[in-house]
# Entry
Amino acid sequence: MKEIIQRKIFDYLVKKGIENFVGVPDSTFKYFIDQGLEKKLVIITTREEEAIGITAGMTMSKSPSLVFMQNAGFANSLSTITSLIELYDIPLLFLIGWRGYLKDDAPEHIKIGMIQPRLMKTLGLESKILTDDDWKAACDWAVKKISNNKFCALVIRREFLD
Amino acid sequence: MIRREAVKSVVGSLSRKDIVVSANGFVSRDLFEVKDRQTNFYMIGSMGLASSIGLGLALKNPNKQIYIFDGDGNILMNLGSLVTIGSLRPKNLIHIVFDNSSHESTGGQPTNSSNVRIDMISKAANYKVFKVSTQNKLKSLLKNIKKIRGPLLILIKVEKSKYVSKRIDIEPTLIKSRFVKAINN
# Structure
């Protein structure tokens, strides 16, 4: 996804009331995180479960929050999602990178990239994919979900190799 | 001193507005049995994350004291949270570790808290650290800590016990909704 779009998405989510951005970085959405770091709205954590815990505390304080992670970190977080976010029904917004979307991505990303959509579906974590052309509608969908007290996820595909 | 007695002393020192997040397992059950409060958030899963939830609450509720009721097994599972807490240094965060050197809720298997220094790790992560193992010392410490700028870590050495507090019989979504209502009032 283009740098300018990533930065616009960040600003748009802030405008729509998201106050906290907490997580573990992903080069897939590097510029989204850069935009947040420049505005001092980002907290980088040691692990993804920690980020989910922090944003759960923030969300319960009525401060809408986004937690970001790679799909490897999403896999780390399964139990936290089922036994904290889903069990207590905490309206948290996830942003998850999709490594392994391209079939020739690095080997460690292939398997998780393949099962990511099914994993999310099995968990009951509803999601929309952010694209260069249609990101605003996906953001609006997500913001509406959490304002209706439902957790949900946005996904950014890794469409380049390095 | 057993954990339930230590929990009772800490709860006795709380004011009505103070927020408590308690770790899954017997810590939450002790808190529930000693004194159920609307501003208690009982965790029944996601082991290790009480300190992280407490950090999120502390950052967003700067005018309230946030107490984390943790266990040694729990904090050892999320030592990374000490790094993040120590970097952000919330002044209103009081992190209490009830340390019985065991996973009591799963049958008393040992943890490694007797082999490493949780107090020194926390100190290196910018906490102010206090260590107690008797009721008298705990009670006199609790009288003074509200004036000290956090993050604070209170490591309470407790003994294993056969006593088991009752289960939390409130639905998780109700634990959350009454907690959200109470802390945002």
Summary: The mean pLDDT of chain B is 96. The helical segments of chain B are 3-12, 26-34, 50-60, 72-77, 80-88, 118-124, 135-144, 172-183. Chain B has eight helices and eight strands. The interface with chain A takes residues 21, 41, 43-46, 48-61, 78, 80-81, 83-84, 88, 172-173, 175-176, 179-180, 183-184 of chain B (CB under 8 Å).
